Amino acid sequence: MENRFNINVDDPTPIYAQLERAIRFAIATDRLRIGEQLPTVRQLAVDLKINANTVAKVYAELERTGVLETRRGVGTFVSERQPATAMRATRTDRQRELRTLVERILTEAYSLGFSLDELVEQLEKELNDKSAAAKRR
User: Is this prediction's pTM over 0.70?
Assistant: First the structure.
């Protein structure tokens, strides 16, 4: 399971932000599917070699936003319902959020030394891989 999440202790981004982004990315790319169970807080902390409180904080935040759901006595799962914010967002809000996301991606890619062409090539590869995986189902 831990190979689904990319956490880099040398990255200046806080670990909790990296983990939250990694879980959201895993869901968006079908590495984690709706209804799939996540590891326990302790297990994921051990697997990633991070503090269990960090994992608990991320799980709680993702549950609060509707991305994850906890079933008492059973575990934490990818939520089957859309997060409330996504359902309520207007087209203008979504476009603004997408612009912000693109700016953040571009900034991070450039800071890591990637060109725009490399970024676009990788995005196209991810899209093609996801499309191919969806067709296999």
Answer: no
